[in-house]
Design brief:
The complex is a heterodimer of chains A (about 350) and B (about 290).
Chain A: H1 6-19, H2 23-38, H3 43-65, H4 73-89, H5 96-118, H6 123-143, H7 145-148, H8 173-195, H9 197-207, H10 209-214, H11 219-245, H12 255-268, H13 274-293, H14 298-312, H15 314-343
Chain B: H1 2-29, H2 36-54, H3 58-79, H4 89-111, E1 127-130, E2 133-136, H5 137-159, H6 161-171, H7 173-178, H8 183-209, H9 215-230, H10 236-255, H11 262-274, H12 282-285
Antiparallel strand pairs in B: 1-2
Helix pairs in contact in B: 1-5, 1-6, 1-8, 1-9, 1-10, 2-3, 2-8, 2-9, 3-8, 5-6, 6-8, 9-10
Classes of the chains: A mainly alpha (about 350), B mainly alpha (about 290).
């Protein structure tokens, strides 16, 4: 390192500083894990939230960082969901964690294969192709109902205890801890990716593809790579859903699932890692609250929120969030520097 | 065999009337309107209410459905859509999906979630047998109406002053503006007209496609296929695409019923990989 020119040294130091965990982030995760003991009665909805957050994280990776609009993220979610369900049902892989990783790999493989499709064409073409893949898989799952259970869903799935010790209980305690850990591990991986030079190159090609390729970034290879990783993470989210509910139905492939996901990400803000997580928390509580008011028509209000966000201006909403983040970060920094100042 | 072809053509014609508004909005303002199906649904429900409850004759219900939907389209265009034209595609997708969700839930609330049927007059039921080929009268009517509409549209676009303005605006918006064409007004009229056509298609298709509150989501993919495969630069592209799609879908459902819509999605993806700009697009050749 010391042999390098000072400028690159400075860049390296800057990037390292950016990638450091801020006290606020640590506080976020401490709180997230504290919910295990704080809200033991809410573990079922918290499990759903954690899964949704992970799913949103996967979309953020391609939408917020690489700029690919996708309406087909549900394809990976669903494939991995069915895969993990089938694997557990027929007792091929009994250990849930191994099954989870395998499902992620299957989804990533699918992502790798279909990534060819998102390299070409305009936003609309990408939208159509990603949506088409998800719908096609949904049709396939419907067609082979002898394997997938068709419209009735995949039934008779029993998930073995984790490590043979921790059984999935009906209150969702084990499930929640399991999902939270999975979310955290995936988050750390994504965080590492995003702050690496690879992540920076993604940002640059989102900003201007032409210029990015002019400075020597292999655009297509980067897109394929990030799409594959994102598919894998979406797959893990799907597998988590099947494992915690011991059920999988055709709606994992539905357009609504992908559209809701976009909404989650928009609520939380794209292009920074916590957007998906915060969005998922807000979305789940919003949904829970509205559904308790009007059980059948909550979709209307979700739609209204979407329309309102766009009309107000996503940049403006993002701006508020950024302002909030900056304020909180400043507060956090002050809290850190003050004891240091006192010490010196 | 010929019956399948006939049904396929009727189905394709219907899809064309439903989707051509979408292709024009997409081509003209580069606007992704996923809520297009909602207008079709509005037209369908309008007819159901008029014909079944009020007792308006079916033949009169169709033009009213067209007018009502066109009015709704014009209203929404002036109040909501204008704010979203300049935005990114992501914003447009979010906005229109939001509209779809709202319309689905609202109709569910007002009309209930069950499927609706339009009472079709006796005279239109039954079949003609021509050279041993059974042709349903209703489908014949659809082909007739849609065929006339297509010819009329083609004439409007190719021959009238408004048509040449529209084509100019599609080709190059900035130059068209520079020549003194009021692109905003052209667009508003086209949008309203396209919505009206969608409403008419929804009214006609209620019998064949089925009408329930999830209609916009169920057929969204079909409209988008027509538009992406057909390209957005002309009327003939989407027309050929919808006829192809109609025949492929009917034939697919007949010969391989369990595969469902799988055939169509596969065709679409293959076409989009092969020619991302659409099968009949001029821009691909340029």
């Amino acid at each position: 390192m010391s042999a390098m020119v000072p400028a690159t040294d400075g860049v390296g130091a800057f990037l390292a500083r950016r990638a450091r965990w801020s006290p606020l982030e640590i506080a976020f995760w401490v709180f997230a894990f504290a919910t295990i003991w704080l809200f033991p009665g809410k573990h079922l909805i918290l499990t759903e939230t954690a899964i949704l957050a992970l799913f949103a994280l996967s979309l953020d990776l391609i939408l917020g960082y690489a700029g690919i609009i996708s309406l087909g993220q549900a394809a990976f979610f669903g494939v991995a969901g069915y895969f993990s369900g089938l694997v557990a049902k027929y007792g091929i892989v009994n250990e849930p964690i191994i099954a989870l990783l395998l499902s992620g790999l299957v989804a990533a493989a699918l992502g790798f294969v279909t990534s060819v499709l998102v390299l070409r064409g305009s936003d609309l073409t990408r939208l159509m192709v990603t949506l088409g893949v998800a719908l096609m898989l949904g049709e396939l799952a419907n067609r082979y109902s002898n394997i997938t259970g068709g419209a009735d869903g995949l039934q008779g799935v029993t998930i073995a205890p984790i490590f043979g010790v921790f059984r999935f209980d009906m209150f969702g305690h084990t499930g929640y801890v399991y999902c939270l850990i999975a979310l955290f591990v995936c988050f750390v991986i994504v965080r590492r990716i995003v702050y690496s030079p690879f992540g920076l190159s993604l940002r640059s090609l989102k900003g201007n593809t032409l210029r990015a390729s002019a400075i020597g970034i292999p655009v297509n290879r980067r897109l394929v790579a990030v799409y594959t990783v994102s598919a894998g993470i979406a797959g893990i989210a799907g597998a988590l859903l099947t494992q915690t509910t011991a059920f999988c139905s055709l709606d994992v492939f539905s357009l609504e699932r992908s559209a809701d996901l976009l909404l989650v990400l928009i609520i939380g803000g794209t292009g920074y890692l916590y957007g998906g997580l915060i969005g998922a928390v807000i979305y789940k509580f919003l949904q829970d609250w509205i559904a308790s008011l009007t059980p059948q028509y909550w979709q209307f209000w979700i739609g209204l929120v979407l329309v309102a966000i766009v009309l107000v201006g996503r940049e403006r909403v993002d701006g508020w969030i950024t302002a909030l983040r900056v304020a909180i970060a400043r507060l956090g920094a002050r809290l850190v520097t003050r004891p240091a100042a006192l010490g010196s | 065999m010929l019956t399948i072809l006939f049904d396929g053509v009727a189905y394709g014609m219907l899809l064309f009337v439903l989707a051509c508004g979408l292709s024009v909005t997409l081509g003209l303002m580069n606007f992704i309107n996923l809520a297009h199906g909602a207008f079709a649904m509005a037209g369908g429900y309008c007819t159901v209410i008029l014909v079944n409850r009020v007792g308006v004759p079916f033949v009169l219900g169709l033009p009213i459905a067209f007018l009502v939907t066109a009015a709704i389209g014009a209203l929404l265009e002036r109040t909501l859509y204008v704010h979203v034209y300049g935005r990114s595609h992501l914003d447009q997708v979010l906005f229109t999906i939001g509209l779809v969700f709202m319309s689905v839930a609202a109709l569910d609330y007002v009309m209930g979630s069950s499927q609706q049927f339009v009472l079709i007059p006796e005279a239109l039921q039954g079949q003609f047998i021509v050279f041993g080929v059974g042709m349903s009268k209703y489908r014949l009517l659809i082909i007739l109406i849609c065929g006339l509409l297509t010819v009329a549209l083609q004439l409007i676009i190719a021959k009238t002053r408004f048509g040449s303005r529209l084509r100019a605006a599609v080709d190059d918006q900035r130059v068209a503006r520079g020549l003194g064409i009021n692109v905003g007004a052209v667009f508003a009229i086209t949008f309203a007209f396209g919505s009206g056509l969608a409403g008419l298609g929804g009214a006609l298709g209620a019998e064949i496609l089925g009408l329930d509150p999830t209609f916009p989501l169920k057929y969204l993919i079909y409209f988008l296929i027509v538009v992406t495969v057909g390209g957005t630069s002309s009327i003939t592209g989407p027309f050929l695409a919808s006829i192809l799609l109609g025949i492929a879908d009917v034939a697919g459902k007949y010969y391989a019923p369990k595969l469902g819509a799988f055939v169509i999605y596969t065709i679409m993806i293959v076409v989009l990989i092969w020619r991302p700009q659409g099968l009949f697009a001029r821009s691909a050749a340029r």
